[in-house]
Automatic annotation (TrEMBL):
Pfam families: FCD, GntR. Residues 1-69 form the HTH gntR-type domain. InterPro entries: GntR_C, TF_FadR/GntR_C, Tscrpt_reg_HTH_GntR, WH-like_DNA-bd_sf, WH_DNA-bd_sf. CDD domains: WHTH_GntR. This is FadR/GntR family transcriptional regulator. It comes from Streptomyces plumbiresistens.
Length: 223
């Protein structure tokens, strides 16, 4: 494993230094192993590991390439790791969302276009006043993803996308067990949307905080 780690660090060094850039094809295995002073086997293991976290793209019959290194691609690994969360860590995920998502919503209030606001409004209108819990949660995910994308920060968007998964089950359970949870969520969505339309960053931040905190408070009381 130590030899593989060394190989990973050497390839990483080539990418960080700019010797290999996004989209570049790596030299042939024998050439790269010789250049880096590695065995072909350790190099092969390093390439396999880096492909799993979307640093490298192994194309059968074509070679190995550096990926685009876009944040959304690289942070897919976060989503994979997050899937292994335990139920007792859901509150911690919600706490992180409560820190990041209101900030992203405030940023979106200053950047979002009228067309984007109208699209979010149409999404809520389509959902109606009495959706099923599953429909509401699916809409909730899309609604907040659309807002965060409007913040203009792709890293923040990818982070929050990866963090939203663990809280989905908690939101469904809340909708099924807490009286007025569906109506409350719809009201909070409308309040966030109104703040976005008014370009009121602080109101948008506050309502996003209330929205996440309400789920967090309910979950804390049930654990």
């Amino acid at each position: 494993m130590a030899v593989t780690d060394e190989a990973i660090e050497k390839i990483k060094g080539m990418i960080v230094s700019g010797a290999l850039r996004p989209g570049d094809r790596l030299p042939k295995e024998s050439e790269l192993a010789s250049e880096l002073g590695l065995s072909r086997n350790s190099l092969r293991e390093a390439v396999r590991a880096l492909s799993l976290i979307r640093i490298l793209d192994v194309r059968q019959g074509d070679g190995t390439y550096v990926t685009s290194l876009d944040p959304q691609l690289l942070l897919e690994a976060l989503s994979f790791v997050v899937d292994f969360h335990r139920d007792d860590t859901v509150l911690e995920f919600l706490a992180v969302r409560r820190i990041l998502e209101p900030a992203a919503t405030a940023m979106a209030a200053l950047r979002i276009s009228e067309q984007q606001v109208d699209a979010l409004s149409a999404q809520l209108d389509k959902l109606g006043d009495s959706p099923s819990v599953e429909e509401l949660v699916a809409c909730d995910l899309d609604f907040h993803r659309g807002i965060v994308q409007s913040s203009g920060n792709s890293v923040l968007c990818s982070l929050l996308d990866g963090l939203s998964g663990p809280t989905t089950r908690a939101r469904i359970w809340r909708g099924l067990t807490q009286e007025d949870a569906v109506a409350g969520t719809l009201r909070e969505h409308r309040a966030i949307l109104a703040a976005l339309r008014d370009r009121d960053a602080e109101a948008a931040r506050s309502w996003a905080t209330v929205h996440i905190a309400s789920v967090e408070q309910w979950l804390r009381s049930t654990l």
